[in-house]
Write a structure and sequence with these properties.
Distance between the termini: 8 Å
CATH class of the largest domain: Alpha Beta
CATH superfamily of the largest domain: Glycogen Phosphorylase B
Number of helices: 14
Radius of gyration: 21 Å
Structural class: alpha/beta
Mean pLDDT: 94
Number of strands: 14
Strand content: 15-25%
Low-confidence stretches: none
CATH topology of the largest domain: Rossmann fold
Strand order of the largest sheet: 3-2-1-4-7-8
Shape: elongated
């Protein structure tokens, strides 16, 4: 196959969708398929995949990529008649193609089959405003199949997009060679943690991640497990508000903000944790479609506490690899953290289970094979 990936999100930008698309491309290449990518960016940006047949970066914000595609995509397909499949990383990218003549987008060499990944949030909000629902249904009407990343996102796709095409569940994955148990003693020294119990959360600091409630649970956790420290990794628009909330609660050095964590230290930061916690929320306008960070922590043999919302129950096997809580209930969150910090044999067993589950079902190779099996 000659697969053209059209995506709003691609490295060097960081994020879950960026990682998902990059790793799928790697998986397709490893299986011997030809891969091309159209994405936003500058031609000076580095190519993360030298094996690509073509990488086109268009100078436009990611959310507006569809505007350039109206004029660019027909010519691109004429110049590259060997393209057999198009994989849209977001349905917005398929809008322009939905206005091309014919029931399907047709390339010079014949019909081109088209597919779309579905992550969750893009079903609830878009740059199209009130036209969004109509354009989304139009885009999905021209697809051969779509691939939601969790059972909840599959349900939401049926409800919001009313697709005529088949939906196939394909979970994201993780690289268990990169994310694996690592020596974190140098981090305990760096952060002055001594032997303190540590809760780690690594994420983009936005309201949906619910880090405020995680901070608000910490006084209760420390009352039950004295000396516990919460380490928050990452950056985002909520950071300053979170710093202020920690100060208001008098938590002092009990909450540490690390800032952005270098890729080479990610596994060590996960391995530093006695528990990884991210009590994400879902709302009418936002959703945690899956949560790759839960897999990354689990690959490092760390038990997790997640919010029972969106697609998180697909990422966290309740009672096996971690605990799920009501993300709006501080007491529920506190108790789950305390339970895992106090019961170390149970927590360690969950961490072992998490890595075994990932090796069995949640590698990037498994994700690529699951998708390729539906489009071949």
């Amino acid at each position: 196959m000659n697969i053209l990936i059209i995506t709003q999100d691609f490295p060097p930008e960081r994020g879950g969708i960026q990682t998902y698309v990059l790793e799928l491309a790697r998986g397709f290449l490893a299986k011997g398929h030809e891969v091309r990518v159209i994405c936003p960016g500058s031609p000076a940006d580095p190519n993360p995949l030298p094996g690509l047949a073509d990488l086109v970066r268009l100078k436009i914000p990611g959310s507006l990529l569809f505007i350039r595609l109206f004029a660019f995509l027909p010519g691109y397909l004429r110049r590259n008649p060997s393209v057999t499949h198009i994989l849209y990383a977001q349905w917005q990218g398929a809008v322009a193609a939905s206005f091309l003549p014919g029931p399907k987008r047709a390339g010079p060499a014949g019909p081109i089959r088209s597919y779309c990944l579905v992550h969750g949030r893009e079903l609830l909000t878009s740059v199209f405003g009130p036209l969004g629902p109509m354009l989304m249904r139009r885009a999905f009407s021209r697809l051969d199949a779509a691939f939601p990343n969790s059972k909840e996102v599959m349900r939401l796709t049926r409800e919001k997009a009313a697709p005529a095409c088949p939906l196939h569940l394909v979970h994201p994955g993780v690289d268990p060679d990169f994310f694996r148990p690592a020596d974190a003693r140098f981090l305990r020294e760096r952060y002055g943690l001594g032997d303190a119990p540590v809760i780690v959360s690594i994420t983009r600091m936005v309201a949906r991640k619910n880090l405020r409630r995680l901070i608000e649970s910490l006084p209760g956790v420390r009352a039950a497990v004295p000396g516990t420290v919460l380490l928050l990794g990452g950056t985002g628009p909520e950071r300053d508000a979170l710093v202020r909330r920690a100060a208001e609660l008098g938590l002092g050095d009990s909450v540490r903000f690390t800032g952005r964590i270098a890729d080479g230290e990610m596994a060590a930061h996960y391995s530093l944790a006695d528990v990884f916690a991210l009590p994400s929320l879902s709302s009418e306008k936002d959703i945690e479609g899956f949560g790759i960070v839960y897999l990354e922590a689990g690959a490092c043999e760390v038990p997790v506490v997640g919010g029972r919302a969106g697609g998180v129950p697909d990422a966290v096997a309740e009672g096996e690899t971690g605990l799920l809580v009501d993300p709006e209930n501080t007491e529920n969150l506190k108790q789950a953290l305390v339970d895992l910090l106090r019961d170390r044999p149970r927590a360690l067993a969950m961490g072992k289970n998490a890595r075994s589950r990932i090796l069995r079902d949640f590698t990037w190779s498994a994700a690529a094979e699951g998708l390729l099996g539906r489009i071949a």
